[in-house]
User: What shape does this take?
Amino acid sequence: MPSTVQEALRRASLQLQAAGLQQPRREAEALLCAMLKRPLAWIYAHGEYVLSAAEETLFGAWVRRRARHEPYAYITGEREFMGLSFLVTRDVLIPRPETEILVETAVALLKEKAEPRILEIGVGSGAVAVSLAVFLPTATVVGVELSAAALEVAGQNARRHQVNERLSFLHGDLYAPVAGRYFDLVVSNPPYIPSVQLPQLAETVKNYEPMLALDGGADGLHFYRRLNGELSQLATPPPFFLLEVGQGQAEPVARLCRQAGFKQIEKIPDLAGIERVILARLEPQ
Ligand SMILES: C[S@@+](CC[C@H](N)C(=O)[O-])C[C@H]1O[C@@H](n2cnc3c(N)ncnc32)[C@H](O)[C@@H]1O
Assistant: This one.
């Protein structure tokens, strides 16, 4: 017997509640909206709409996945970042809202500069690199990524937002694919969770998101040491170096940047006051 919107929502809410999710009704509504590609107002106004067999099957599958605590973004395959919609799969980290600070800072730094050259290390879904290309229309952006599967997703996102002509993605380890090249800005949101803390992460993260995107080595600082210590692979160190950091990592990362020769370091907080981004300048302002 096919279900109406109301019946499907009631059933899904109960399933999600039993699975321990905090806001089962809202979650069920959000999944149904995404599946039907309709706004919430439509769902409220069409409680008697009868789902097709295909819609009912897909919604049931999505609700079961959410009940196993799979992140919403992997189920729907979409995540919004900087007001843009990105394809996400389990091959990539789901872009986080705090990473928008990285993009906003880079855009503010370079918006007056003609044809800036930007390097991103660790592109994942491409959310940062693609957003930079969208919001800095004269920039050329190079993104390096170790996971070939993630690069596939990033490439699709570059085409989706029609910036693929100014954006190139290279497969490899840190600076190796761009050795000897010059960039005005190097930006990275590297893996920064200390290895010992990985088992304590929320199930939605540790059971679904790629470990390659999370594991920052014994103390979480492995990639910051490498990103600073291996800058000599580039033609010159970049005038601007922008790094997202985890909670409590701002000071040790600032120290690494100073040791690498950056003269002025700024720690940029998020809305909760947590220092999230390090902006290092080669020359003082
Ligand atoms: C924290 S994620 C950031 C993804 C994306 N930039 C974002 O902010 O949503 C770190 C990314 O670095 C990549 N990565 C890990 N080790 C790397 C390496 N040695 N060289 C290049 N990329 C690496 C991971 O695969 C992952 O995509």
The domain at 91-281 is CATH 3.40.50.150 (Rossmann fold). The radius of gyration is 21 Å. Residues 93, 95, 99, 121-125, 127-128, 144-147, 150, 173-174, 189-191, 212-213 surround S-adenosylmethionine (CB under 6 Å).
